[in-house]
Amino acid sequence: MKNNPSEGIQTLTIISELCTGCMKCVRGCPVEAMRFRDGLPFVKWEKCIHCGECIKACDAIQPLTTSFLELSRFKYTIAIPSPAFVGQFEKHITPSHTFFALKSFGFDDVVNLAPFCSAYFKAVKFIVAESDIPKPVISSMCPVVVSLIQTKYPSLIEHLLPIMPPRQLAAKQVIDSLVKEGVYKKEEIGVIYITPCISKMIEVKEFSEESYIHGAIAIKHIYNEILKKIKPSEKMDIGNSLYGFRQAVAGGLTDIIGEENVLVVSGIKNLKKVFDDIEMGKVRKISFVDTYACSEGCIGGTLTVDDVYIARQKILSLFSKRKSDEEEEKLVEIYLKNRFNPVKRWGTKKREKSLSLGVKLVTMKDELLKRLPKIDCGLCGAPTCEAFAEDVIEGEADERDCIFDMIKHKEIKAEEFLLRWKKRGGKDEAE
After folding, report:
1. Separation of alpha carbons 265 and 82, rounded Å
2. What residues does 80 pair with on adjacent strands?
3. Which residues contact 2 (CB under 8 A, 6 or more apart)?
4. Hey, what domains does the chain have and what are their CATH numbers?
5. Confidence of residue 410 (pLDDT cuts 50, 70, 90)
6. Other CB atoms closer than 10 Å to residue 430's CB: what's the count?
7. For residue 246, what are the CA distances in angstroms to 12, 17, 140, 142, 318?
8. Which residue in 58, 97, 122, 195 has the most C-beta neighbors within 10 A?
9. What is the pLDDT of the chain when averaged over all its residues?
10. Which has more confidence, 351 or 62?
């Protein structure tokens, strides 16, 4: 597996015809991976953590998920809906209804992820009790969290929970079972995740031995078709283990571990603050950090359809009773038997520069920043003066691209300034 599984993987596309040059995507990116040059935004994929914040900011940016045509290459297709999926419908529409509708849509089978989610948290309870594992343990369920740690906080990789996420274990179990029966070969089985966000495409596109999911379809892309197929009398037996659907809500399953030992964090800004605190040793009494890149959890994903707070209320009220389940206990054992070394799996990014060169580049960047206006206007195409300085040091931009530098040295007239401003999307304001 690559050291950074998200590096170079494209999970979104930019529709140039819809771009107005507003630069909301550039300014809204939490890791400064977006730039605006030559009239269009583009992504520095090596920095991107696939959080989808740019998709929220602008309609010109669209997710790249699996098309329905791609499913034809499999003889047997299985849908695994995210727990967030069941929260997108009215209360009287149960998971049994939506799962039956999914199967009617064309999938050969639909897998209930709820017991896998409950078992995941039960396994966490055993792992955090071990004395030799670095604390606090950080949930590795969200690919955005893993990418953020790899990109910005490599020292925290060893804190990542060393078990596969529920969707992967569910996919592995169903594939292994079908292959064992001898009806289908492994390559003939396609597992499709019904996803609330673009980050799951990282697992799909990486094509590594750790991934058992072959495609991801956005909830919002399939929602209307599923809604048409739902009928009150048509249900699918999905068992009694439903409490795990609460995993879609930030903190929904923390009572399994014990809420006094868990810190629940959602949203990129909040994650960065907490990760900074962990690196500085401020988070000592917490055993487990339950992390979600999207606000309020997976129900706040960029590819959902319902209001996040309505979805939250529905899921927490519908699945409030927790029952002991033999299937879940077996899954806990499987989780614990299939642990891995997080550092070996996710690794740290390779040092592309020697330490002495790195210090030199930081010094050059600091010197350049002294000459920049530090007002983060974005007219250079970078979100901040600091990001622009990095681009200049890396040879991707020229210091003279700074508008204020040009005006200062009388290299640009007011008319040219306005033309540049219009090109950057400030047409209405300039006129």
Report:
1. 19
2. 193
3. 206, 208
4. 12-63 (3.30.70.20), 68-346 (3.40.50.1780), 360-430 (1.10.15.40)
5. low
6. 13
7. 28, 40, 17, 15, 9
8. 195
9. 86
10. 62
In one-letter notation, the amino acid at residue 176 is D
pLDDT in the model for residue 209:
57
- For residue 121, what are its two tokens? 């948290």
Q: Supply the DSSP string of 359-403, one letter for each residue.
A: HHHHHHHHHHHHHS--S---TTSSSSHHHHHHHHHTTSS-GGG-H
Token pair in block for residue 257? 């571990």
pTM of the model: 0.86
The token pair at 211 is: 């991934």
Q: In this structure, are residues 145 and 138 in contact, taking their beta carbons and an 8 Å threshold?
A: yes
Q: Report CA dihedral (128, 131, 132, 133) to the nearest 10 degrees.
A: 20
Instruction: Report CA torsion sign: 30, 32, 35, 36.
Output: positive
Of 166, 169, 170, 163, whose CA–CA distance to 130 is shortest? 163
CA 264 to mean position of chain CA atoms: 16
Q: Give φ, ψ of 354 to 5 degrees.
A: -70, 160
- The residue count for the chain: 431
Of the pLDDT bands very low, low, confident and very high (cuts 50, 70, 90), residue 402 is confident
Q: What is the pLDDT of residues 268-287, one digit of tens each?
A: 999 999 999 999 998 888 99
| Tokens encoding 13 | 């596309």
How many angstroms from the chain centroid is the CA of residue 204? 13
Q: Which residues contact 316 (CB under 8 A, 6 or more apart)?
A: 246, 249, 252
Position 233 pLDDT exceeds 50: yes
Percent of the chain past pLDDT 90, that is, above it, reads: 52
Q: What are phi and psi of 215, to 5 degrees?
A: -170, 160
